[in-house]
Amino acid sequence: MQTKKERKPIYSILIEHREIPLLAVLAGKSWLNVLKNGSINMVMCCGMLCVLLIGSIDISITAILAFAGAVAGKLMGTGVLQSTVLMFLLGIAIGAVIGAVNGVLMSYGRVISLIVTLSTSYIVRALIPMSWLLGMNKINPTQLTQGFKDSLINHSFLGLPFLVWLAVLVVVVTGVFLKYTRTGRNLYAVGSNAEAAQMRGVPINRIRVLAHTICGATAGLAGIMWLAFYAAIEKGSALGDEMFTIAACVLGGVAVTGGYGKITGVVIGAVMIAFIDSAIPQMGIGNSMITEFIKGILLLVAILLNVILQRIAEKQDLARRNI
Amino acid sequence: MQKVKSFLKSWEFFLIVLLAVMCLVFKITDASRIAAGAQKKPIFYFANVLKSMRPYFLYSFMTLGMMLILAMGDIDISVGAIGTLSVVTLGVTYNRIAGQTENGSPAALAVALLACLLVGSLCGALNGFLVTRFKELFPMIITLATQLFFRGFSYLLIGGDTLTFKDPTFKSLSSLNQLLKVGGLQIPISIPIYLALAVVFYFWLHRTGNGRKIFAIGTNSAATYYSGVRVDRIKFWCFVIAGFMSAVTGIFFVGNSSSSVKADIMDGYHMYAIAAAVLGGFSTDGGKGSVIGATISLVIFGVVKFGLGTLFAFPDSAVNLSVGVILILSVLVPNLVEDIQNKRKVAQRRAETAKLNAAKA
Amino acid sequence: MPGSEYILEMNGITKIFPGVKALDNVHFNLKAGEIHALVGENGAGKSTFIKTLTGVHQPDGGEIILNGEKVVMTDPITAQERGIAAIYQHAASYPDLSVAENIFIGHEFKIGPFIDWPKMNREAKKLLDSIDANLSPTASVGSLTVGQQQLVEIAKALSMNAKILIMDEPTASLSQREAEDLYTIARRLRDQGVGIILISHRFEDIFGLADRVTVFRDAQYIGTWKLEEVDQPFLVHHMVGREITQLFPKKETVVGEELLKLEHLTRTGFYRDINMTVRSGEIVGLTGLVGAGRTEVMESVFGVTKPDSGRIIFRGEEVKDQTPTQMMARGLGMLPENRQKEGLLLAWSINHNISLSVLNKCQDGIFINRGKEYELSNKMKELLAIKAPNTDTHTGALSGGNQQKVVVAKQLAAEPQVIILDEPTKGVDVGSKAAIYEIMSDLASQGLGILMISSELPEVINMSDRIYVMSEGKVTKEFTDTKSLTQDDILHAAMPQSK
Questions:
Q1: Average pLDDT rounded to a whole number, residues C393-413
Q2: How many structural domains does chain B have?
């Protein structure tokens, strides 16, 4: 007797029905664009996967992105920091610190993660327009070194720009971490049954802080990627985009209740979001306002479709049970 | 005696103390600034604070709606976007019917207002429908998605433009933001309207069977369902009311924003609604909170923003920052207090047991 | 007492929680190769005691001596390393993770810092085979039955080379057959020299397995006996602290008109072609293995789920599009199996819980009349003898038996004609069990129709007037005469035919 169904995420059904190749056709020759557009989101998805696995959520990631980008950009603009590598390390560090604060508040402070990250997103975004940071200004291309601006786009390897390779690197590291290390498996354990994990001696609070720290770090990294890619950052950068990160994870079959989710699913989910992003202009719709609208609808439909397809699959399984 | 004791332990009492302490701090700052010659006249006094509550009571209606949702243990992130879409509908409808005529048309305004409230309710109904029919998804995920959808819809309707109305009919909306003169006091109109609604909400939530059921859903929705309560129906209507309240908030906003309508007019305002409700004792866990607490919280936020803004000359963003900090602290502090109390209880027991064991030996 | 006789001695253990003393100077010891049962009512401190042994809680007093050496269990890992493994009441596994991972989590096979999955799966298979569990190591544990999950837990204990195995209510959610399998494995482990601590409410478990038995009551140590020295009434007396005269107080009743009738009820994947009747004054037992579809049928009758076809006739009227609200209004009550999740609002008082289902009776217009509310709940508290200081007591603070009474009170407040009781005595201690049976008996004599879903065959046989047995979603047998029925008769009908 099956008490619980094996989860069947939307992408596996889409692959069966060959809709993914269809999306690829829609995206046309711009598959490179798809990867480029999707890279930053992909990096954040890896962090988001970690917090979703422990049954938490982080909606402060795009605020962290903007803040990390602003701080690093300001330092480069004022000439304090010139090294591209240090920029990336700084971004990761800033993100990790904010993520750790989120994690400590949600685990040791027992504040619900939604409230914590909603608050930190406001706090962190409120810091950006302060006079010691950006003030009323934004970071613009002239404040950045050429080497930094070129680092992700103009260097490529095997035909793919570094931007994409960076995303691939993060995906691989996260994937190996989650599947092949004890700490990684503990994330699943905590999300699957925290009480059991505690009884088995898993330091659940430390694991929770770690997950949030990783998520913050990826968001910080994404901030520097954003800065290098667009050569600009401002107070409202990526505002509301956390929804696309969460959506990619949901589409990738990650359980928002925690404990279940695979990196492969998340990658496919993120690519699907990037397809939607790139395919709309291909359909001959130029107006960015309409793009927003269609994106909103597609996202809603995709998430709901995911559930409906799962229900159909479950119903078919039940019919097969011969009772 | 028992009643006094339980009141002294209640969250509402804590909020009142918090409010009093804040007022005291601001009052002292005010006085010391006069003494130092930084300002000539006192700024922080009752009539002035009351008068300046106007912008902060704008989202009070949204808070009422959010209270319902939080009491059921759900959350609605889309309320800000619903407010925006309702307002955009208001502007677009009015523009369509009355155009940019000189005097405008009261009938058109009535239709536009109805459309605005209707759209708000419909958005709430969509949320309610999705939340009750797609239980596999969390309300948070659903409303995050519908937020994007509503926002997209606003952009579809008016693009990046700003609709501004100069005719007196439309301008009459700004009377919603005028001050009522009662005796020597100037009271923003939104406050008495809010209080009237709050009284209704208070009796509904805390005194009627229906209100009790809303809290029951937040405490344990499965058990409530097995008790024969129509959980889905109540949920649906609470989301509709939350949407309606967002539209009401939107109408006050238009009056406030020099009679112009933009597609991002209320972006992010869900934060204030959630913050005030959570500080007021509501929780995303559901099942708790009180209308009185939420009302005191609204006052606290108003005082904080007024005090920080005028006395300490904090920029707007810093005020946002303080909202975030207060929100975290309002959940964190009670948790920490509980931890300390528990530790103390155990230590006490331990000491007693040690004494007993020593006596036995 | 020579120290070498016992592999474990726990002396004078005391544990304090905020508000309660969970353990007060209790003792326990265990020999290698014995099964030592630990019994007591809910709240007697058994689970806390186990948690002090496994390092989840640190005791506030007393000592733990393991193999003659005084030890301190600072955390669960220390306990595991010293060879103590526990199988908890609610299978404490990770439903989303695979069988192999559940077995080896915390001591995975690794190559360098990385987990060696192929080896883990191979070793898991070996362990599972050694206890005759035919499971795939890669299946996710959430897709297994509770019985299979227990086997995974045992495999996990074996993988750690446990010398002491704690089984906390291992059979609570198992059918008779699965429980038998578990007994066999427990005996084999004992013969291999493992010391087993068995916690159970089921006397079949205790008398079928244990060598010695220790009783706790109200956080205190009562005594330890060899099993040959004791019988069931003796144990019950020490657990409850008083005599229980009659466990199954079945009254003769007048069976009247037909109240509930199911015709060809079918829900694809759950149950098929169910025909049943419940008459006034009758207690009808519905039994079968866990997963046979018993609860699913009754959930459909109560309106929680929708059947695909068939008819439900309630008091002569066909019911369509039923919901719990509508069915309760018609006079059907249901006591859900999981009373903590579906039966009660644990954070609420007895008063509020009882009135929730009948708020319209406690209202003046739309406003709640607190006087009427208290009147109702106080009446119910007295009627069902709910043990609590007053009706403002939170239900979360009550014992399992009293919680169950509150759920019954909630249903009775709505004045039903038919009540469905789903596992009414699950996890309820002996004293309260008798009280619940008495309530059932009283209700039937008042003319209510009662349908009781239960896996505990003694209560099914002794309390029911008629018994339906389900297997694999179908009713396989109806027993109209319960007087001479044996457990074997029922088990025979409950066994899946296809296997």
A1: 85
A2: 1
Distance in angstroms (rounded) separating the CA atoms of residues C312 and C263? 6
> Is residue B312 included in any domain, yes or no?
yes
Does the beta-carbon distance from C363 to B357 stay under 8 Å?
A: no
Does any domain span residue A296? no
Nearest-CA distance C157 → chain B (Å): 33
Q: Is residue B222 part of a domain?
A: yes
Q: How many domains does chain A have?
A: 1
What is the domain extent for residue B191? 46-339
Q: In the prediction, which pLDDT does B314 show?
A: 73
Considering the entire predicted model, what is its pTM?
0.84
Interchain CB distance below 8 Å, C97 and A5? no
C-alpha span between A245 and A262 (Å, rounded): 15
Helix/strand/coil for A60? coil
Query: Above 50 in pLDDT, residue A1?
Result: no
Q: What are the residues of chain A with a beta carbon less than 8 Å away from any beta carbon of chain B? A: 57, 59, 105, 109-112, 114-116, 118-123, 125-130, 239-240, 243, 246-247, 250, 256, 287, 289-290, 292-297, 299-300, 303-304, 307, 310
Nearest to C370 by CA among C393, C392, C344, C346: C392
Residue B19 lies in a domain: no
Distance, in Å, from the CA atom of C320 to the CA atom of C328, rounded to the nearest integer, reads 14
Q: Does A188 touch chain C (CB under 8 A)?
A: yes
Structural domain including A76 reads 40-261
Provide, as residue numbers in chain C, all residues whose Cβ is less than 8 Å from the Cβ of A255: 96
For residues C387 and C373, give the distance between their C-alpha atoms in angstroms, rounded to a whole number: 19
Residue A18 confidence class, pLDDT cut points 50, 70, 90: very low
Nearest to A323 among C86, C117, C473 (CB): C473
Q: Which residue would you say has higher pLDDT here, C310 or A17?
A: C310
Question: Phi/psi at C376 (nearest 5 deg)?
Answer: -65, -50
C-alpha–C-alpha distance, residues C330 and C418, integer Å = 10
3-state helix, strand, coil in chain C (%, to 5): 35, 25, 35
Question: Hey, are the CB atoms on A122 and B318 less than 8 Å from each other?
Answer: no
Which of these, B208, B218, B199, lies nearest to B288 by C-alpha position?
Answer: B218
Distances (CA, A) of A100 to A82, A119, A211, B164: 27, 14, 8, 45
Rounded to whole angstroms, how far apart are CA atoms A19 and A17?
6
C316 touches chain B (CB under 8 A): no
Domains, chain C, in order of start with CATH, read: 3-240 (3.40.50.300), 258-331+416-494 (3.40.50.300)
In the block, tokens 């030996």 appear at: B361
**Does A47 have pLDDT greater than 90?**
yes
Query: Which letter, b or e, does each residue of B302-318 get, where b requires 16 or more Cβ atoms within 10 Å of its Cβ?
Result: bbbbbbbbbbeebbebb
Q: What share of chain B is helix, strand, coil (3-state, %, to 5)?
A: 75, 5, 20
From chain A, the residues in CB contact with B148 under 8 A are: 240, 243, 295-296, 299-300
CATH number at B53 reads 1.10.3470
ipTM over 0.95: no
pLDDT tens-digit series, residues C263-311: 999 998 889 899 999 999 999 999 987 778 889 999 999 999 999 999 9
Which positions in chain B touch C14 (Cβ < 8 Å)?
A: 353
Helices (H), A28-83: 31-53, 61-77
Q: Please report whether residue A5 resides in a domain.
A: no
With 0-12 / 13-18 / 19 or more C-beta atoms within 10 angstroms meaning exposed / middle / buried, residue A16 is exposed
With residues binned 3-state (H G I as helix, E B as strand, rest as coil), the percentages for chain A, rounded to 5, are 75, 0, 25
Q: Between C17, C357, C360, which is nearest B227 by CB?
A: C357
Residue B153 within a domain:
yes
Q: C57 — contact with chain B (CB < 8 Å)?
A: no
